[in-house]
């Protein structure tokens, strides 16, 4: 099944109102590559101004709460994200699994809330370096996927991101063979979880994707795009990654 590539930028806790000027160049790159889906996930406070600055560019959150509302200080609901103009949300990023001790069960709740509330959910999985060294990479990511997927996920509402923890922000990446191997395993596992819908779900690679390695990674089988951190902060770095999706 042909899947449109998706290049999503995760600004993490970076950016500023002034930095939203980068969206002009990112939006231009998206328009210049109409066969590629492009999105940016800035910090919560920048979502509404980002939507105002680049109305044609899908903007997303970096987390959401599973509950619709309530006494959850510091958290943000799907409804609030939607009101701010978000179209998607990242859930289960390894930085949240580590820093906020999020479990896959919690990630499943967040992903389910996101999908039920009309957002596309980007569900992240990835092994640590110790897990890879122990030969457990496939088992870890397949288990995270199975435990993090909500009921009702389908090709239109779910995106999976494979992000080896040891590759994030380090300049290190797995070999192309290793990336292809994990993506094939995730696709196979998805088929057992959601049947035929699995063939339409985009599986992104994330972890030190840069302009100089984007083309080889993005052209691997079952790699349907990238979740980009550092290189998504400027149009100069992000635009070539978008253009590498040929
Ligand atoms: O969500 C994005 C990933 O954590 C990748 O970050 P990075 O491109 O800075 O390595």
From TrEMBL:
Pathway: Carbohydrate biosynthesis; gluconeogenesis; Carbohydrate degradation; glycolysis; D-glyceraldehyde 3-phosphate from glycerone phosphate: step 1/1; Carbohydrate metabolism; erythritol degradation. It catalyses: D-glyceraldehyde 3-phosphate = dihydroxyacetone phosphate. InterPro entries: TrioseP_Isoase_bac/euk, Triosephosphate_isomerase, Triosephosphate_isomerase_AS. Substrate binds at residues 10-12, 169, 208, 229-230. The keyword Cytoplasm applies. Homodimer. It is found in: Cytoplasm. It comes from the Bacteria. PANTHER family: TRIOSEPHOSPHATE ISOMERASE (PTHR21139:SF42). Belongs to the triosephosphate isomerase family. This is Triosephosphate isomerase. Keywords: Cytoplasm, Gluconeogenesis, Glycolysis, Isomerase. The active site is at 93 (electrophile), 163 (proton acceptor). HAMAP family: TIM_B. It holds the Pfam family TIM. It comes from Sphingomonas quercus. The gene is tpiA. Its EC number is 5.3.1.1. Involved in the gluconeogenesis. Catalyzes stereospecifically the conversion of dihydroxyacetone phosphate (DHAP) to D-glyceraldehyde-3-phosphate (G3P). Its main location: cytoplasm. One of its GO terms (molecular function) is triose-phosphate isomerase activity.
């Amino acid at each position: 099944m042909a899947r449109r590539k998706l290049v999503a930028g995760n600004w993490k806790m970076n950016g500023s109102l002034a930095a939203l000027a980068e969206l002009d160049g990112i939006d231009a790159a998206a328009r210049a590559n109409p066969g590629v889906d492009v999105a940016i996930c800035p910090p919560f406070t920048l979502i509404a101004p980002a939507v105002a600055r680049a109305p044609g560019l899908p903007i997303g959150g970096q987390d959401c709460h599973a509950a619709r509302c309530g006494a959850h200080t510091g958290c943000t609901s799907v409804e609030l994200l939607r009101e701010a103009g978000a179209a998607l949300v990242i859930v289960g990023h390894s930085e949240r699994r580590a820093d906020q001790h999020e479990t896959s069960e919690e990630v499943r709740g967040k992903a389910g809330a996101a999908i039920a509330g009309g957002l596309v959910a980007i569900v992240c999985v990835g092994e640590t370096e110790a897990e890879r060294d122990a030969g457990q990479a496939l088992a870890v990511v397949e288990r995270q996927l199975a435990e993090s997927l909500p009921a009702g996920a389908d090709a239109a509402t779910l995106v999976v991101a494979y992000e080896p923890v040891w590759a994030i922000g380090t300049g290190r990446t797995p070999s192309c063979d290793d990336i292809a191997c994990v993506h094939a395993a995730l696709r196979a596992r998805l088929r057992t979880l959601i049947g035929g819908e699995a063939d339409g779900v985009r599986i992104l690679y994330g972890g030190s994707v840069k302009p100089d390695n984007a083309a080889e990674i993005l052209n691997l089988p079952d790699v349907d795009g990238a979740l980009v951190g550092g290189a998504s902060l400027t149009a100069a770095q992000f635009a070539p990654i978008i253009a590498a999706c040929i």
